[in-house]
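Shapes recur. One chain:

:::
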Amino acid sequence: MESKKIRQLFLDFFRGKGHEVVPSSALLPKDDPTLLFTNAGMVQFKSVFLGEESRPYKKAVTVQKCLRAGGKHNDLENVGRTARHHTFFEMLGNFSFGNYFKKEAAEWAWELLTERMKLPANKLYITVYEKDDEAEEIWKNHVGIPKERIYRLGEKDNFWQMGDTGPCGPCSEILIDQGEALSCGKPTCTIGCDCDRYLEIWNLVFMQFNRDSSGSLTPLPKPSIDTGMGLERLSAVLQGKHNNFDTDLFRPIIKTVENISGKKYGLAPANDVSMRVIADHIRSAAFVIAEGLFPSNEGRGYVLRRIVRRAARHGFMLGIGAPFLYNVLDTVYEIMSEPYPELLENVERSKKILKLEEERFAHTLSSGMDILNKLISELKASGKDTIPGAELFKLYDTYGFPVDLAQDIAEDNKFKTDLKGFNEEMELQKTRARASWVGEEEVAGVYREVKKEFGATTFLGYETLTSDSKVNAIIKSGSRTDEAGEGDEVELILDASPFYGESGGQVGDKGTIRAEGLKAEVLDTKKFSDILIHNAVVKKGIIRKGMTVSAAVDEARRKAVMRNHTATHILHAALKAVLGDHIKQAGSLVAPDRLRFDFTHFYAMDEREIHEVEDMVNEQIFRNLPVNKSTANLDEAISRGVTALFGEKYGETVRVVQTGTFSAELCGGTHSDATGEIGLFKIVSEGSVAAGIRRIEAITGYLAIEFYKERENVLKKTAALLKVPEQKVPERVEKIISELKQHEKELDRFKQKAAKGKVESILENITSIDSIKVLAHKIDGLDMKTLRDLTDTLKNKIGSGIIILGSTHDGQAYYVSAVTKDLASRFHAGEILKQVTGGKGGGRPDMAQGGTKDVEGMDKAIKSVVDIIREQVKK
């Protein structure tokens, strides 16, 4: 059965059982700080399971895009080496939110697998939690599974929980016996063995308990169902394959890689691993790039960078010498764009991003080789023969240099690699990441408790900047407390608040919370789900849970933020008008003193474009357009052309912020009432923050006026120093620069004459090695051009030989290496220079140049030349 038919059959089956077919959520979760990527079907329903959100349906079915390649769930290193590990995968899932429970879940799963998908019932096995008598009774007496094919397993295998606290419950797995040929061969091989004989197909989670901080379990009032079945694994079973990569989800991609590499799949195990890695990783890259993610050095962008570079590295191992991944995207689109049409929205942008990242990785490989070669030279000089694990990890983690490539290079140099130390460093990093994840989850658990007890915070900040509110909770050092006194740093949660919680790029409000004898300064406001958390310091008195307080937002600061937020919307529209509709927001910061706007664009904006955008924004400000805020149905707003940010989670009812007819966006932030309140808009910088991502920083209002005042003062001072009118400053500066260049030329001529005057004395330093003349000499004060000219002169004088000259100039160490033509077949000037400088520089066999910051090391480097040439002569 084709994978697309399996996907549709699953949805149709549960639609027929009264389930709402819910589209896959984005891979980049916007509202869950504990997740790098959506990694399971239940993620988009997490708030429903926690009781924080209600939906108009009680039963749902999805085919969810998932990615596990970083953080707590990370399958990256296993991909390609096993039959079943993937980074990107699709999870088929059916869900009940307090509707049906174990009996229906088990019966429907069995019906789908045996009657609709025609899997042999006598090959299927069931596991249940060892204490779940109810589940075993259902499988045995209601579904009709023989007792000998039902296995009880412990908590490790058959008990699921969302975190250390919260909803949890036993689970039941359906497995298929794939035959003795796939057995590990051990006498103990049975259900639960790690080999491929007994393959888990479907996991049914029975969410029926709540675990508190003491570990105690209490029954949930409305037990729920959460199931998950990997499409890749199921496709392999239904297509009679024992490896997921042999299914129709991967085979066409592998075929494309075969065509590009000229290698055949199935002939060499190492090549097969590389092709599987590429086939897997290109799917992940295609999906997350389509959602707006770009490779970077932190967070999700760093995971994407590792995925792309790992795939590129395996292409290199297949002998593919040029960027190629972007050419594999078309095959991914052919397979996956029907169920996921969003893949086709920005095809050219996706290809450009991949190609740029591959080109950058080629540079990384080159840089890493230089660092590794220098490291090996240093270790060799100190008599060591092993590259430490910490150094390997630094190359891998900081520079993205593959450890397997480092091993190959080490072996070529008869060096060992400390893989044990490398793995220890890797485990340390995972431990740090895990600790960070657990910490976030624990804090989130306190907020959930408060929300469960008191409900959402009512936000009043659209209409007012002050309110009388009740203190629902006080959190100190991560735990709830009933009161806090002077000097205490606390998180305050009120029943209603005018404070805006940081979200959508807008910073949180500051202000004060007061009562009789009490003053607390609010330093920041955060948002968790739909409760507002006021980070505050008690300045005077005692604040107690349940007391009524007066909350007041810092009005001047809020209004500055509002000006910048409205200006950001206008800027977004102006960028689209000037640069094109491909512009998409990739991030933003709206603060009182500035605004920052990241957007998708591949080239630097030129001065004309910057001025055009700036003028267009100011034109809308001077028109004093009304800024209307209204609510609308999501579908209705989108159909009207209102801009929505990809990946953001919107409810059925959305808030629309419209600036005249110039801009309209979905936005929950605070805004000016009219564009004239912004006053003035000025772009202060435009630059790159990642491949294909540009960033504009701008200021508005009084700060923009101050900016122009400062520029005016600088111009006046410059004019006074130059003793010319302000309008004549550029002309006078050009004349001074021209005169300086002329003086520099004269100085260069003098230096060249002085250097040539020393030729005879320099030639006295020639050494003969096996009848080869070698000249290694340091001469201070020469720039690179003068050093090259001097080398050419010496080359002509020496007739036949090798020359290495060094000079320190302006804090730089410059080197030139030259080999006369008669020796160029035996000695390479570029390779000699790399050995002298520790990997810096390069060039032709007869001439090479390079520079370093290591001025102090020049004497030692020049002295090493004779030994380097002597070693090469021996070879």
Observations:
- Confidence is low (pLDDT under 50) at residues 434-440.
- The two ends are 62 Å apart (CA to CA).
- The longest strand covers residues 198-211.
